[in-house]
Description:
By secondary structure, this protein is mainly α. The protein contains eight helices and no strands. It has one domain. The chain is 79% helix and 0% strand. Helix 1 runs parallel beside helix 4, helix 2 runs parallel beside helix 5 and helix 4 runs antiparallel to helix 8. The chain is globular and about 60 Å long. The mean pLDDT is 85.
Amino acid sequence: MKAKSVLVSKMMLGTFLQWTMWVVGIFLLIYIAIQIVSIIFGGMMETTILDAAMQPARVFLFVTGLLSMGGFLSEFVSNGVTRRDYYLGTTYSLFFLGFVMTLLAGVLYGLERLLFSLTGWNQWLSGAAVGDEAVLLTLVMVFFQFVLWYLLGWFISAGFYHHWLLGLGFIAASIIVITINDYVWGEAAGTLTFFHWLLPVEQFSVGTAVITSVILIILLVTLMRKLTKNAVVKV
């Protein structure tokens, strides 16, 4: 018999992947429409599919994380699943979903570049395309961001599940976590004046950024175990 945590992971992934297909389909329709308008009126694409997908994907994963606590926990525990198995299953699913979303973003970007290369439309990508040598690094950053946004949604949801004041505190903590992660990856170094004053580094190494993201993820995963361990199931 398979471990219940694996079954939990499969059930959650099945639901999340269905949501993902709907979200990706809607995103592609909107993205294609916007790019057609940009080419017609501006003469070039202002962004690539990889850049355009970042914010919607982060929001989607954050919302998915928010929805991973109350209803799922009550459903699983009421059907004989332990809180530990729920926690492990959710953790497995969030890493796998983050990987799938990152892989999907990379594949779509590659298909976009291939399409424009084969059709001779490369000039429309000028100013928008990411250098090929930077794509892999970008996808590494994207994976960590996706996992963190899911975790933060789950984290905040767990806070409100226990008490609304705790939830508000977790929102503040989540803002700090995502700000630190963005800072070490150079996403918003120019605007984060406090962090730049505290640690005046113009650009962190890739190793430092990866280690920082891993530490933040481990911290959140550990906290989630404590938050779910004795959570009272609300019927």
